[in-house]
Amino acid sequence: MKKVVLYGVGLDGEKFYCKYKEQYEFVYAVDKNSGRFFHNMPVYSFEEVKDDLNNYFTYVAVGSEKSWKEVRAAFEGIGLAEYKNFLSAEYANKKLAILYGNCHIYQIMRYLQANPAFSREYTVQYYFRDVGELLAANNALEMCDLFIVQDIMKNNKFGLPSVEEVTGRLSEKCICIKIPNLYGCNLFFPQLKPCSEIDFEKRRQLHANKNAIDFDRISEAGKEKVTDLLANTLMWKDVCLEGLYNAGGGYQ
């Protein structure tokens, strides 16, 4: 049975202990409210045991993101590394999935987090402009089990690390999925293409006339939003559907 330390003896610590008491041997607990016992284990302050924490793996069960960041900083301050020496209690017994990319990748992350089957097996972390934090924590990439990344080019205008710079630090056991860089609003890449000016004007006349939209009942601010929405929507066409229509098909 693996020996571990529990950081936090509040409600989150109680939940973690009850869930894993048959799986782990809890050596002691750490909490600001020290000098007592928690389920028959002594509770020490961080200062009392900071020189001993490297001998065990610690699960941190604290209730807020602010508290977690404070504890993580304290552990890193004594040379301990996340994933190797300590971990948030909510990530216990889960594989690590890291996603790196812009808003398209962010939506994939939200989808995966909302999937019960995936969430039971993986904890998900997302990085884009804050990717420096990921690169600074070498152990995160080393411990990663699933890496989903956008095909970010070298010398991109955002000054972000390219996909090669990041994936080169993954372990051999990690599954890496690289996703093409989507552009504009072409969610159906690659068959969505921009219209010509002539096609766009035809579409605008068809979909933005008075019979299609009653602009008289829309506020000025609403008219601007509708106009912008139409411009960003009508400028794209699905070449697959256009091809079928031009070949004699109809819109259903």
Index terms:
4-stranded parallel beta sheet; single chain; 38% helix; 6-stranded mixed beta sheet; 252 residues
How would you describe what is shown here?
- The chain has 252 residues and is of the alpha/beta class.
- Helix content is 38%, strand content 22%.
- It is built from 11 helices and 12 strands.
- It has a 6-stranded mixed sheet with strand order 3-4-2-1-5-6, with helices on both faces.
- Helix 1 links the parallel strand 1 (2-7) and strand 2 (24-30).
- The protein is elongated, with a radius of gyration of 26 Å.
- The chain starts with a strand and ends in a 6-residue tail after the last helix.
Walk me through the topology.
Blueprint: E1 2-7, H1 11-20, E2 24-30, E3 36-38, E4 41-44, H2 46-49, E5 57-60, H3 65-77, E6 86-88, E7 95-100, H4 103-114, H5 116-121, E8 122-127, H6 131-136, H7 138-143, E9 146-150, H8 163-167, E10 175-179, E11 192-194, H9 197-207, H10 220-234, E12 236-238, H11 239-246
Parallel strand pairs: 1-2, 1-5, 2-4, 5-6, 7-8, 7-9, 9-10
Antiparallel strand pairs: 3-4, 11-12
Gyration radius, in Å: 26 Å
Largest β sheet strand count, sense and barrel closure: 6 strands, mixed
Mean pLDDT: 85
Straight-line distance between termini: 62 Å
Share in β-strands? 15-25%
Oligomer: single chain
Net shape: elongated
Number of strands: 12
Alpha plus pi helix count:
11
Kindly report the spatial arrangement of strands forming the biggest sheet.
Answer: 3-4-2-1-5-6
The class by helix and strand makeup works out as alpha/beta
Reading the helices and strands in chain order gives EHEEEHEHEEHHEHHEHEEHHEH
In the predicted model, the low-confidence regions spanning at least 5 consecutive residues are none
Please estimate the helix content.
25-40%
